[in-house]
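As promised in the previous annual report, we have extended the structural survey to additional targets. Below is the entry for Isocitrate/isopropylmalate dehydrogenase family protein.
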Amino acid sequence: MNKTHTAVLIPGDGIGPEVTEAVLKVLKAVEAPVEFHPHLAGLTAMEKHGDVLPESTLDAIREDKLALKGPCTTPVGKGFTSVNVQLRQKLDLYAAVRPVRSLPGVPTRFENVDLVIFRENTEGLYAGVENDIVPGVVTSMKIVTEKASTRIARRAFEYVQKRGRRRVTAFHKANIMKKSDGLFLRCAQDVHDAEFPDVEYDTFIIDAGCMRLVQDPTNFDVLLMENFYGDIVSDLAAGLVGGLGVVPGANIGEDTAIFEAVHGSAPDIAGKGIANPLALLMSAVMMLNHVHATQDDEACKTAASRIKQAYNQALADGEKTGDIGGKLGTMGFADAVIARL
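The corresponding structure token record, generated without further manual editing, is:
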């Protein structure tokens, strides 16, 4: 009998509950061996518990070591600290992993895009160390450590080696930020030389790398970078294949992982049944593959493969939501996927 895995489910805000419902319907249809425990984060948690990230939600994730998360709202320039940043820092989810690939039936400027971005997730400018010096003057400190730089580099090289990928490319600005980005580069080089000398490795200054990326993304394979650069390049790369609605995301630590839709909560279309659930569905596939990789569960691997094949076929058949040129609503797309399992 197959083992049932437990995971925390965070529906999120705005369109989050709608896309979550659609994804759960697909997971049930494929009989994925995962039992979800719902918990709150974001505005809904603030309204009910007075905290955007209740301790009960954190404790549940620490217990299950696995979570699937919808989008959570974060105000710009005021209000509370990002739920995502808190989750990464409090659970030490140091690796943000963003696969970006061309999808059948989703035409873009490029074909055959197949990138994976590894972003250091806990420090850099996003460490949140900001201070008012005098009125009108604010400092923001970039923090780079040998520990964090080394472990994200090792994660990227391990991925290339295990998945049979081609190359790791580090993006940096060490020509200007010689100490911080210089440390990041030295750590990546040391990991490569000591542990993965057979893996191809090169580097690009971030601005030149971005130019090359939008000229021809097939020049790159696995991209490695610090937090701030990774945030920007991840979204830029998503634009190469159709936007944030068609890419999954994961935040992974040593023993805990959260898989999430990386798009916003889109409150302007919440409740209309038109949101695209594909990003969260793809993230659920990543989650199932992660369980297979860490716990050797063939049932999860099979479920992941069936879902991926089904949504690829649905897209190829023109069964899409409105944001990517189709006519289906949220649950309509879920049904189209289920019909092709």
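Residues 298-316 form the longest helix (19 residues). The domain at 109-240 is CATH 3.40.718.10 (Isopropylmalate Dehydrogenase). These points will be discussed at the next consortium meeting with the crystallography subgroup.
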